[in-house]
Amino acid sequence: MAARRHLATSSDVTDASIGLTEDQMMLQKMAEDFSLNEIAPHAAEWDENKHFPADVLQEAAGLGFGGIFVREESGGAGLSRLDGSVIFEALAQGCTVRQERKEGGPD
Q: Going from the N-terminus, what domains does the chain have, and what CATH number goes with each?
């Protein structure tokens, strides 16, 4: 598949998809949706209780977010470091610190 890139315009200053291929934007959207729906609502409680949500990480792996740098012939996704960065940044949307900042809490 030929990579079509999203080109930046002056209105894209805060657009996290600038310069990404369509596949990378799809990964970004999927990871962000997962993070906001499955991680963010519980992150503060998990932090407070020192809980490691292994079940949620297994769900993320089921979406293809596990073994992202492992070659496809070895059972991984075979993604690039940039692809991984896109995924990790999008998953970080569910982080308690980011949620507090969005809600006007402590920095």
A: 20-102 (1.10.540.10)
